């Protein structure tokens, strides 16, 4: 999960984790829609990562990583402000066996689930109020 929209700050931490597993990440591409500044090169631990961008060809919520060892990896970019429970769902959905949805589709579905959850909570709150009123009314009736 991205902690910011600052590629120069995020890439060194990402490559520190992935380089030992996948070999040196050499290139990264992003969609500029969600990244306000796109540096051409980012120095990371012991090497430099070249950064490119594709607006129409790349999903805005995807980071494409290239390594000479492993090849290409597409990573879902979860917005920094995403609720942790939704972020966990997104990470699970992105690694599911079908992986047939685009990153943007996943984020739209997560937003829909958030709205449904909020509506369910609001509905429960209304029912709680109605139950309390009903209990109060029955207690107040003289016998």
Can you put this structure into words, describing what you see?
This protein folds into two domains: 1-80, no CATH class; 82-143. It is built from three helices and five strands. It has helices spanning 7-22, 84-94, 103-140; strands at residues 25-30, 41-44, 47-53, 62-67, 71-76. α2 crosses α3 (103-140). The longest helix has 38 residues, at 103-140. The model has no long low-confidence stretch (mean pLDDT 84). InterPro entries: DUF5994 (IPR046036). Pfam families: DUF5994.
Instruction: Tell me the total number of β-strands.
Output: 5
* Main beta-sheet strand count, sense and barrel state: 5 strands, mixed
Query: What number of structural domains do the residues give?
Result: 2
Which structural class fits the helix and strand makeup? Answer: alpha+beta
How big a fraction of the residues is strand? 15-25%
Distance between the termini: 61 Å
Number of helices: 3
The general outline is elongated
Which assembly state applies to the chains in this document?
single chain
Helical content, roughly? 40-55%
Give the strand order of the largest sheet, numbering strands 1, 2, ... along the chain: 2-3-1-4-5
Give the averaged pLDDT, no decimals: 84
Radius of gyration, CA atoms, in whole angstroms: 23 Å
- Uncertain residue segments: none
What is the helix/strand order? Answer: HEEEEEHH
């Amino acid at each position: 999960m991205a902690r910011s929209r600052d590629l120069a700050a995020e890439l060194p931490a990402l490559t520190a984790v992935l380089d030992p597993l996948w070999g040196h990440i050499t290139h990264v591409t992003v969609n500029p829609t969600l990244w306000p500044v796109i540096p051409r090169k980012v120095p990371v631990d012991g090497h430099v990562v070249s950064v490119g961008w594709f607006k129409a060809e790349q999903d805005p919520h995807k980071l494409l990583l290239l390594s000479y060892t492993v090849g290409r990896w597409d990573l879902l970019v979860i917005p920094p402000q995403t609720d942790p429970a939704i972020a966990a769902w997104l990470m699970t959905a992105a690694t599911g066996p079908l992986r047939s949805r685009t990153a943007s589709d996943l984020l739209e579905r997560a937003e829909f689930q958030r709205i449904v959850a909020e509506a369910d909570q609001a509905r429960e709150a209304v029912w709680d109020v109605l139950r309390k009123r009903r209990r109060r009314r029955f207690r107040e009736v003289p016998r």
